[in-house]
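Review form for a predicted model. The reviewer records the input and the model, then writes brief findings.
Reviewer: anonymous (R2)
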Amino acid sequence: MSRRGTGTRATHQALPPAMRDAVDEFATHLAQVRNRSAHTVRAYVADLVSLLDHAVRMGCAEPADLELGVLRSWLAKQRTTGAAHSSSARRAAAARTFSGWAHRSGLLATDVAAPLATPKACRELPVVLRADQAAALVEAPGGGGTPAPDGAGLPVPRPEAATATPPEPASATGAAPGTATATPPEAATTTGAVLLRDRALLELLYATGARISEVCGLDVTDVDHGRRVIRVIGKGNRERTVPYGLPAQRAIDRWLTVGRPELAGAASDRALFLGARGGRLHPTMARRIVAGYARTAGLPPTSPHGLRHSAATHLLDGGADLRAVQELLGHASLASTQIYTHVSMERLRAAYRQAHPRA
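Model under review:
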């Protein structure tokens, strides 16, 4: 368990019994009735525990003691500790959601958070890669080419690093830093499989603009090779079908026929992408993979979500319809997709300023 999770649980257990029960019931409501994702449930519960802990310090013993002044005091305290506007907005939303639920459940006489104002979040334009930079990133595994299945001529990472980060560039002696020159054949084979996986992962992330959790959650059966589409389960358990192109198809085929069998084991089940030990690839590890290859390619710091931003922006730059991009990305609201039109407009302005003689 993470430090954050441990701290939250300790604070939760320190709450009065009535408030502990309210937290547990609210979490069940979010997961089973509102059908929120596990990540959203964790975030809202953490915010609620923080709120109730603050309320207890202000003399509240049960949810019925909550007042609007307590909620405002809690949000003000968060802002004084340097919380971002987006975090403050989410916490206000969590407080309103809990207050409404508690009122309907009879825990609160009135919906005390109804008048609570939401801090206006500053929406910064996402940083996106240029098309050539995105191409350099997805082609980074294997130095821009598809590695041989036996890993011949490829740098071999340390065994403990194989599950954490992409292979480091080879040194002058041909071996990765910190490794011996002589390498067992099975280690080279594993490295080749990992590079094939990484190429397929990067190609699919950029081709579909899918979230990293969605891609890591894919099973082999979610890939329709004939139609070149994947079946994605997104936020709120909403299912959508997303197409991908020929480069991603080639990378996936190579991974499934050559790379995946090398890593597959008892824990693999039907997972499309596997870790070096054979289990389903975890999103945290996938983020490290993307960041590692971005460094190797000399690109700006890049995350899987950065690739998602880049894919959406490049689609719009290429003339894609905004509604189509919304459907591809799985956005519930068109407003979430419209931010990419601002990115494209900024690029248009920059090109105009650079090229027009009277800009």
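Findings: The first helix runs from residue 3 to 14.
Further findings: Residues 3-104 form one domain.
Recommendation: see findings above.
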